[in-house]
Write a structure and sequence with these properties.
Arc Repressor Mutant, subunit A, 2 domains
Length: 112
Amino acid sequence: MNSDVFQAIADPTRRAILGYLASGPRNVNAISRQFPVSRMAVYKHIKLLTASGLIEVRQRGRERFCEVRLERLAEVSEWIDQLREPWIARPNQSDIALQEAKSIRSNRKNKA
């Protein structure tokens, strides 16, 4: 099962789990204690994050540790960059308002 990265980060709990794991690998029990949802719900979130490639689960003795793999977020970053380009290229509303004000002022001076 290879889950979509966008689907994986759509849920706020999964984003919070990624944020928690960004500081380093944690065992599943430690992750479960950090969130106000059942342990089973956390396991389901971890399963989806694993399927999407955003985390890797490794067995160490009797414990399972989750480690974040943020390189999979490159797909999301590229998509955001594509959306950002037109916004950066176009003037913002304050620039437009300033240009209009300058134009009105200039027209008034020319008529006087």
